[in-house]
Write a structure and sequence with these properties.
Tetracycline Repressor, domain 2; mainly alpha; about 290 residues; 2 domains
């Protein structure tokens, strides 16, 4: 049981669950009615296997840095619960299984997009971008923003502009989300010489960037209503959620308490979950 738990933790389950929620929203938004939940489950399974593979590769590559950071030192590799060889083989098998599921039972486009996301996160971000530039999370965030597109493509077998709009929301949301955490963990990143924005440009500059990105997110979050993708339910939800997020960001800017950074980070998770939930509610609820 302990071994199974270690492999489970190697998949970064909380991150994968959030990705699957966003992918599921993309699936449901791509059609007026749900024709086959079994098909959606198969598609989500393929995406989940590939996402778990990317998470495992990330932990294999970052195992030394993880061992020295409080946030990650309890992961299976730093704790010696799994060997690098076993973790690498696990990641390879998960990736192959996920790709085969998508190729055989979903469509080739979804498989290609999912593998591109895997490569973007597991290799381009983890190996290069993370240690190359303080804009790492901005550039690398595109891979993490892909799930709605993957879900949409699995149903429509196309790259729809509406799906790309959902990707844009997550893409703009990622920097203020992650930079809030980076402020809280800045000393650990500095210790490992990882050039996160608070380390290279200071906390004050990072807080300003969080505000600016949150303002951009506020505007972007309204686009589904502007382009007639969604209606009033989504509009009011986006206005309320984005206003609260902006409040957290402004409060963080004027605060000297790092706990406010963690509170901003935690709300950002609720934000992306609730705004996608609002998209679904607006899509399926008919106001008479």
């Amino acid at each position: 049981m302990t071994l199974l738990k270690s492999y489970y933790q190697l998949c970064k389950p909380n991150v994968v669950y959030m990705m699957l929620i966003c992918a599921f929203v993309g699936m449901l938004m791509a059609e007026e009615t749900v024709n086959s939940f079994s098909y959606l489950f198969i598609a989500l399974s393929g995406i989940a296997f590939c996402a778990a593979s990317a998470a495992a590769i990330n932990q294999v590559i970052d195992r030394d840095a993880d061992a020295s950071m409080t946030r990650t030192d309890q992961r299976p590799l730093p704790q010696g619960e799994l060997s690098v060889t076993h973790a690498s083989l696990f990641a390879l098998v998960m990736g192959i299984v996920g790709a085969l599921i998508l190729y055989l039972y979903v469509n080739t486009l979804t498989m290609i997009l999912t593998l591109a996301s895997l490569i973007g996160y597991a290799f381009i971000y983890t190996v290069y971008l993370k240690r190359a530039t303080p804009q790492n999370i901005v550039i690398g965030g595109l891979a993490g923003a892909a799930p709605p597109l993957l879900g949409w493509a699995s149903v429509s077998n196309s790259i729809d502009p509406y799906a790309l709009l959902l990707v844009l929301i997550i893409f703009v949301w990622t920097p203020p989300h992650f930079w809030a955490l980076a402020i809280y963990r800045k000393d650990e990143y500095a210790k490992e010489s990882i050039p996160m924005l608070p380390v290279t440009h200071g906390v004050a500059f990072t807080k300003l960037q969080i505000i600016l990105y949150t303002i951009i997110l506020f505007i972007v979050s309204l686009l589904p209503y502007v382009v007639l993708m969604s209606g009033e339910i989504y509009l009011f939800s986006a206005l309320i959620l984005s206003t609260i997020f902006l409040y957290y960001s402004v409060n963080l800017y004027f605060s000297n308490d790092d706990e406010d950074a963690m509170r901003t980070f935690q709300f950002s998770i609720y934000y992306i979950f609730l705004i996608f939930l609002a998209l679904l509610a607006d899509h399926f609820i008919i106001i008479s």
